[in-house]
User: Which sequence fits this backbone?
């Protein structure tokens, strides 16, 4: 029996033909409301839940185009035995490059330079205001695909970061790892803290007032994980009281970041609009995950690439 | 006989004591006008030439605190057999980190983000506007200490640059090198061009109108070499006509860059005020060169570290 796949991303002709050759009936996103008998969803949108829960459909698998899956109706998915595969890894290399860029933006004093440039000010900083990546104590929360890619790039700068994960298990590229419960000693003299954790019940508002209060002038805080991991009010407080000196934020509690958010105007904050994983080659990678999973799905009903544990949430 | 060293950088007590222990009489910069019998100059200033050419002195060695020495009165130096050692290498690691930062600033679309942030605009770029370092064709002019440090960091991103030097000799970390005469084929489809050459008669205005006209939309042009290597009028023309799409400039034909320069207002140019080599550890490295050279100078009158060929100019 032919399986029907509803795709939210627009596929080009080559991609559509490739799916047809795998025996798949491709339904474009524009037909989401009228289509029936959908077996597979590729991607997601505000109509995703309606397609998933439509009794005329019988969705058994969702291939997301994101690494995080916290926006999916996970309770419903668990109750109905829907399988989920995510796009973990598709963005990791690009996110890691963005992260190195965020660090150098502040360490090499570009943040002052762009402001001075706007006013035509040739304002030479003191030598002591600039530092190198090689000499920072860096702590990365999350040692999965993103964290490992960041560590790998840091290693090329002669920098060996510390990692924080659930169990404290060791990971390649890190000079040491601790569990989330045991991070206090590690971060109290950290120069750089990077969040690359998924959003799960454990990580929501992990970076809160109590967390930031234990920091002693962290030079740069980076969030390329999930916006909900950070209590933004607490972060703004930490920036004012210099527990954190600078921050680069790609994700936010509410996206788009509301125009009235005070974060926009913090002179020591760099805001990018959830773009850190973007790359001209993204679509190719995402379609590759779908194709690979389809192959095993058609063969024996199993999914092999980036299978999500829907109970854990990642 | 005790040698007298005039130092333009202010030394701390530990450094002064260390020089005295090596049998050196240290003369601070403030005494430049009245001091006599100076043998060695450390650093330089607008009074450097007066000290050097004062007949009451007999300077035989200048240890600079810069990599380039083009600002020294080289004709006089050649005529009077003064030896010159430079600070080549002291800044290379920091300049290389700055250079990676410049590239990521544009590749990861921070340049648009900082402008949008000022207006509170959540403006998500197209995925196709962002790219990764790993996928760029990068050409580095100058394969000395700075160029090699840049190449080494790029290698950590899975990027293997091409090099351009005088003879075209091969250098570690580069996937290939050509001579300056043979660069046309290499640059016509380059994504990134980086200048890390010293200022010599050969390199002055090397990057001129003819040079830029052969480029086909180079994504990023970086100058961390010398300002005089670039004809700024020609660069501005290339930016307008999109032979070059973005530029990061740390050095300029005239420094400070005049307030009335049009470069300040180019939206696709990042200007930093000759700071790319700055690092909190600079002074320690510079003093190390002086100390090491003093040791051999006192032993057998020879200089061993960073000896400049004053005929070549570097």
Assistant:
């Amino acid at each position: 029996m032919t399986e029907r796949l509803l795709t939210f991303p627009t596929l080009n002709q080559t991609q559509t033909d490739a799916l047809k050759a795998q025996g798949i009936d491709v339904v474009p996103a524009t037909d989401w409301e009228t289509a029936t008998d959908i077996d597979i969803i590729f991607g997601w949108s505000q109509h995703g839940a309606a397609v998933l829960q439509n009794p005329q459909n019988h969705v058994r698998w969702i291939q997301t185009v994101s690494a995080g899956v916290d926006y999916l109706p996970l309770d419903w998915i668990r109750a109905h035995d829907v399988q989920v595969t995510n796009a973990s890894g598709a963005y990791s290399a690009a996110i890691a490059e963005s992260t190195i860029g965020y660090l150098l933006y502040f360490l090499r004093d570009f943040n002052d330079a762009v402001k001075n440039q706007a006013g035509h000010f040739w304002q030479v900083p003191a030598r002591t205001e600039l530092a190198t990546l090689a000499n920072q104590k860096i702590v990365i929360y999350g040692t999965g695909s993103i964290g490992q890619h960041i560590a790998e790039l840091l290693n090329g700068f002669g920098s060996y970061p510390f990692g924080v994960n659930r169990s404290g298990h060791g990971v390649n590229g890190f000079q040491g790892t601790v569990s989330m419960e045991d991070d206090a000693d590690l971060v109290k003299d950290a120069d750089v803290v990077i969040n690359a954790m998924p959003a799960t019940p454990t990580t929501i508002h992990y970076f809160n007032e109590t967390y930031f209060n234990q920091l002693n002038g962290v030079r740069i805080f980076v969030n390329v994980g999930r916006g909900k991991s950070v209590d933004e009010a607490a972060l703004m407080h930490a920036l004012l009281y210099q527990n954190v000196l600078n921050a680069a934020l790609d994700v936010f509690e509410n996206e788009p970041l509301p125009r009235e958010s005070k974060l926009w105007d913090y002179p020591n904050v760099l805001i990018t609009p959830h773009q850190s994983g973007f790359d001209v080659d993204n679509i190719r990678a995402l379609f590759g995950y779908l194709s690979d999973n389809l192959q095993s799905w058609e063969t024996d009903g199993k999914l092999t690439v980036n299978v999500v544990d829907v109970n854990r949430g990642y």
Summary: Chain B has two domains: 3-89+281-300, 92-271. Residues 250 and 261 of chain B are 14 Å apart (CA to CA).
